[in-house]
Automatic annotation (TrEMBL):
This is Homoserine dehydrogenase. Residues 130-307 form the Homoserine dehydrogenase catalytic domain. Keywords: Amino-acid biosynthesis, Methionine biosynthesis, NADP, Oxidoreductase, Threonine biosynthesis. Residues 12-122 form the Aspartate/homoserine dehydrogenase NAD-binding domain. It catalyses: L-homoserine + NADP(+) = L-aspartate 4-semialdehyde + NADPH + H(+).
Amino acid sequence: MENKIINLGIFGFGVVGQGLYEVLNRTKGINARIKKICIKDPNKPRPIDASYFTTDKNEILNDPTIDVVVELINETEAAFEIVSTALRNGKAVVSASKRMIAENLPALYQLQVENKVPFLYEASSCASIPIIRNLEEYYDNDLLNAVEGICNGSTNYILTKIFEDNLSFETALQQAQDKGFAETDPTLDIEGYDPKFKIVILLLHAFGTFVKPEEVFNFGIHHLNDFDIQFAKQRNCTIKLIGNCRRQNGHVNAYVLPHLIREHNLLYDVYNEYNGVLLESAFTDKQFFVGKGAGGTATGSAVLSDISALLYNYRYEYKKIKQSNQPAFTNDVQLKIYLRYSNASQVHLTDFYNISEKYESSTYSYVVGVINLQKLKGAAWLKNKDVNLLVLGEDHAR
């Protein structure tokens, strides 16, 4: 595509679609123009000329003059159909749909191989942070030990407002929704599903390991209460929702869990809708990336970066898939956690390897101890709203 104008066919014109339109029009030197935008509701008021829009997906998918399909919709099955059809039709594709990508990674990888067309999705993982391209181009599998960080701007905004401005969870969530950082239904964010989809994608680019989303345990901030917040503050800590994948002894483990973060941890000072990602490798120790993780222009800029990369014939090479030492996925790893509950009948304390601290009161009690991740993943008692957990233990970001 070098030295030509790229014609774009866009699916979806919500927050990210409008963000892309804005950054594309404000950026000089990128030879790309929007030819058609496919939307569901033709009667919805939109800030640009109606001639851009269509409700017929085939106007984009079957148009030979459209070079790149940009997929920015929220419906997982429809998004996969759009992307797979476009790839089969020989069109390059850019997407921001983390759930669709995470749930279909093996098939999407195969479609790229079979049709010899690029599929780029930097915006799906950490919005403005170019983490996928760094993992692809810079970090050899033998050297990379861990990828961890804050990869959901919505929950980080909520937690920042709770700890910095002393807002209630409900008020902070409403603010996040009002600013467009959280959806009307915030379940995927606050329960940790959104960052889990991102971790599944990063696992592939970091270690060459395909993992199904349901294999990765996620538990969000939806059970957080004032008792937990006071527990953190009394220890001069904050709480962050962390996605983590780490290679150990020939295996790789991954999870998304709320963590107790101390002040010396680099993630401590990642505020509001920002994301922060730490990479740990054998020779470079730790490297830290930070950038906006939510909002239309932040995500739109990552989409535009992928479009720009296509001008130079860039594609993911998936080098780590082709190596012979991909680590197998496991949930057999021990975590040190704080577990809060109202009464002991709500939890199975016998699931712990050991308990180093215990507190009991008439309202809430807690223990601090070591438990296996596989036990947590299968723990029905975590569904009780009077039960919450925070990961403690060694900080990896000093």
